[in-house]
Amino acid sequence: MINKINKLSKSEFIKVFANIFENAIWIAEELCNQKPFDNFEALSSKMLNIFETATKEKQLKILNAHPDLANKTKISILTPDSLKEQINAGLDQCTKEEFNEFKKLNNTYKKFGFPFILAVKEKTKIEILNNFRKRVFSDPEIEFDEAVKQVKQIANLRLKELNNKDL
C-alpha cells in the first residue's frame, strides 16, 4: 500500500488525501512534499502534525469547512465522507422534532465562530444530540480545543478507512 502511495503523482496524491481534513487541499499538498513515507503510520502521523502545527487561523478555516450536523437543507453540498458519516450515524433519519433541535443547536453554537464538530462514527443520533446539548454551553477556548480534537479524530478515522482500501 505505501509503495503505491509513494508512487502517486502529485495530482493523484492530492485527490486521495484532499478530504482527510475537510476540503483542506493545502494539507494534502504539504504532505505530498514529504514523500516518500516508510509506512502508512508515518504518513498519518505527518498529516496530523501538519494540522496540529498549523496557525490557529488555518485550523479555524478547517473547522469552518465542516458542515452543520443533520442540516437537511445542505445535504447536497456535503463531501462524500461527511455524507457517509452522517448517514451512518442516522442523522438523515431524524424526526421533525430532532431536525428542529439540531437546527436550533447549530444556530446557537455559531456563537463560537465555527460549527459543532463531533466524530460521529459509531455514535447514535441520541448520543450526538446529548453531546451537542452539553457542548453548546461550553467555554469558547475549551470548545475550540475540543473541535480541533474532534477534527483530528475524524481525520484519523478517515486515514484508517483509507488504509483498508485498495487505491
Describe this structure in words.
The structure is a single chain. The chain folds into two domains: 2-60, no CATH class; 62-160, Oxo-4-hydroxy-4-carboxy-5-ureidoimidazoline decarboxylase (UraD-like), CATH 1.10.3330. The chain is 62% helix and 0% strand. It is built from nine helices and no strands. The model has no long low-confidence stretch (mean pLDDT 91).
Q: Main attributes?
A:
2 domains, mainly alpha, 9 helices, single chain, 62% helix
Topology readout:
Layout: H1 2-7, H2 10-17, H3 25-32, H4 40-52, H5 56-65, H6 80-88, H7 96-109, H8 125-135, H9 140-163
Helix pairs in contact: 2-3, 3-4, 4-9, 5-9, 7-8
Mean pLDDT: 91
Basic shape: globular
List the total number of helices: 9
Largest beta sheet, briefly? none
| Reported CATH architecture of the largest domain | Orthogonal Bundle
CATH class of the largest domain: Mainly Alpha
CATH superfamily of the largest domain: Oxo-4-hydroxy-4-carboxy-5-ureidoimidazoline decarboxylase
Secondary-structure element pattern, one letter each: HHHHHHHHH
Estimate nothing, just give the exact number of structural domains. 2
Summarize the structure in short.
By secondary structure, the chain is mostly helical.
